[in-house]
Task: structure prediction
Amino acid sequence: MADIKKPWAGRFEKPTEPSVEDFTESVSFDHQLYKYDIQGSIAHATMLTVCGLLTEKEKEAIILGLKEIEKEIEQGNFSFQKGLEDIHMNIEAALIRKLGDAGKKLHTARSRNDQVALDLRLWTRESIGQVSLLIEGLQSELAQKGKAHIDLIIPGFTHLQHAQPVLLAHHLLAYVEMLERDRERLADSMTRVNHSPLGACALAGTTLPIDQEMTAQLLGFSKPCSNSIDAVSDRDFCLEFASNIAILSMHLSRLAEEWILWASPEFEFIELDESLCTGSSIMPQKRNPDVLELIRAKCARVYGNLFFLFSLMKALPLSYNRDMQEDKVAIFDIASTIKASLILLEKVVKGTTFKPENIAIACKKGFLDATALAEYLVIKGLPFRQAHEVVGKLVRRAAQEGKMLKEFSLDELSQFSPLIDVGVYNVLGVENCIKHYKGTSSTSPSAVRERLEWWLTSLGRSKKAQ
Result:
């Protein structure tokens, strides 16, 4: 590489200290941007030709050379040089070796500042699409599980205590709704990601005749960035992507934690697919939910990277600063972490077996029908606070005697309130509770079936459109 000078060689007399090259290189991680860099360079060369800064012959040679370099990288035949610092200079140097002076013209009206901003925007745009598709895959598996167990009643929890009965499908659809908001946040962020920074150059633009609208259009952006300083000096689109992924990761962590509990002997609501579990090096009986535990842990990793990005950007003066080179370490890790988590969690959901017999036993505990009894008394005319007190006393008696509420005789129940009549047995018991739920967002069978069908149809349409 001795014949390739550094881009700033005209200003410096001394060669760069090797330790500085080791410390400042980024090609070890930003090589992942190669296809976006080449994509941007092809659009840039096309624009330069239309604006009279390249000949048609030079443009064709540059595009052909860039495509050859892309192929070499994909086939593993490209030698990255840390002395050239980053992916941009590695590709440019390779192009100059192939083309000579024509390759040297590609950087006309462009800086590595707007070049890396462009590459990151293209990468973020594609990552949003990839993550969104994986979210839909997980949503689909959750909805399918709900459909397969449409009538299964489980204990609903608050404070990790038995609260009220709910349909399993309703519980699973809660996560589908959360994931949909995650997907919507990512889609909404596209309106801010999808601006082209090309033409901003280092920070002030260029005196050369260029067409920023053209490069934006060629690269599928909605418009060019409006301010050249802003275009190269902010990474808020990365922060927004990372923030959205952090919220998504939180939702995955909650689902993972819940299923870890459900798979434990204390709950035993589910059995995880053996191929997605691991064993113990000392305890031969163990089958550990390590994938779920690590999905739970990966959330912390995403949070750490998010706060790294915030800390990186918090005090940088305008415009570009070399600190921003480090953004890619965090943002790449965030994307790879969430994609792996989504892929594996979808497999976990698909391979999980529910245990209705164990769930039915759990439904007999915790007086899940107590609220329904209080509401029964409200319908009978008793103010809710009084109804609450009456049922509270009845629950205390039931706990002392080891009974379920529906196991009391009518005479025993009426001792707590004269308003209780034989109709009370139509609301006691989890099956009766479920039948009487009202409201479109409730766990009533009709509402859940309707929403589940909507989701299955919607996700099915989306899958066909892909």
Notes: The mean pLDDT is 95. Residues 84 and 90 are 6 Å apart (CA to CA).
